[in-house]
Amino acid sequence: GTPSVLEVDAVYNFVLSSGHILEIDSWLCVTLGDGRDDLRDQLGPSRFSSPAAALQLVHASAAFEGGRITKAAFRRGNASLTASRQAGAIDAFLRLPAHERRLSLQLLCAFHRAAMEETDVSSEIRQEESVAIGTHTPPVGPEVERLTEAFCKSTDAAWHTWVTHDAAAFALWWINHVHPFLDGNGRTARCVAYLIVCAAGEATADPPQLQRFHQRFGEAPIRRKYVTGLSLADGRAAAADMAMPLPASTVAELALLLRELCSPEDMSACAAVGQAA
Q1: What is the mean pLDDT of the chain?
Q2: Which residues belong to the active site?
Q3: Where is ATP bound in this sequence (predicted)?
Q4: I need a labelling partner for 275 at 20 to 30 A (CA). Which of 39, 42, 116, 137 fits?
Q5: 188 is in an annotated binding site
């Protein structure tokens, strides 16, 4: 039977054992990575009231978005609900007059809330909490808000001077790089990138399409390109001492990936999936 309390060791064995897809308490566990990291290092000496509670924390963990843990748990219905909320936020933004379409901290927090409403994760800008994503350690303290404000201004400028997928790739990288929230940064970054593509008329604020867009990043070939693109952009930005404005070539690989995922063929496939559902 299922124990009433799980130690972290048990969560580690349960969540990361390889070779299976399994369901428990309406949670689905699926393989994402290669199992090199120990979940105990991420969660510490925690105790959980149920497997579902443990998996909820694992699902919300930023460690997944850095590709550091091999399993993720998805609550049934959460993915479509999140996509619906995010698509609604994108649609509301696109209905604004063009001169009022500006990225801001408030808008970024709204997209984050749409992604994380089913969790206890705060949508406030991270302050003193430190996080580590692979070999990258995002800033902490006042630097987080300063860099996030700089991101909004830089993305607004790039939006009007760069080609669509370069601007979207810049947003995708920057949010992951600065990690303004304790968790949910990957989902928020993808939402903002998708918003930029929608604003250019190359995608629509359709919940099934947005849900499929998010899901594609969990596919092994796509995820490898994604993680590689983020890492290369981190290195180029560091070499340039983060001097703004960074050139579009900083995020070249991510731009190519977004062109692939937002191609008319891929968008058509997304629409077909949504109709079938």
Answers
A1: 72
A2: 179
A3: 183-190
A4: 116
A5: yes
